Amino acid sequence: MDVAKELESPLEEPEPDPILDYHLSLMWLTENMGGDTKPLTNQFFTLALMDDVEPRGIGSALLKGCAHLDASHLDSVLSIFDQHGAWEHPFNVGYAFIRILKSSPDSPARLAEAGRLSSKNVKQCILTSFTEAGWFPDELKTWVLALCSDPDPDNSSHALACASMKADLAGDITPLIHAGMHSKLWW
Fold it and tell me: pLDDT, tens digit, for every residue of 36-48?
């Protein structure tokens, strides 16, 4: 191999990937789409619930941008959380979830009534959404505090991070954090 010849040749451009280009273009459009999306909301939820990661990501991104979501959409958001868990686009749907809670005063009560708060996926998605947003409603303090002592270490560690955002909960969580510092388990 001629090293001098290699150094003289320009870097080769990678072969274009039309599928990647399509995906990136579609994601850009979903993130920046304006206008009235209300008539498409059910389709966004359908996409976000799909098993295929591509449409699911697009549906999640579209839901993130839906400013018109309200408490009537809470069950659909919880279905996405329940089906896909905290590691599948939680932040996009989580932003929609937080927007619903902030805009609808009765949402925390409806959330408590949803009956699905026992699902591990739902718990972790809700806690992740709260932690990412740096906010959760005071009406859910008791629920978050209870999860700080959950036997599932994933739930309890997420709940402790979430509860630490409320200064008035410091007295309740300090012993739990202290105990965790002495644990031999990495989490």
Answer: 777 888 888 998 8
Of 25-29, 120-124, 138-142, give the lowest mean pLDDT range.
25-29
Chain centroid offset of residue 158 CA: 13
DSSP 147-182: HTT-SSHHHHHHHHHHHTT-GGGHHHHHHHHHHHHT
Q: Which two tokens stand for residue 87?
A: 């590691």
Q: Distance (Å, rounded) from C-alpha 12 to C-alpha 130?
A: 45
Measured CA to CA, the distance from residue 171 to residue 141 in angstroms comes to 13
pLDDT at position 119, please?
83
- Could you tell me the two tokens for 155? 């739930």
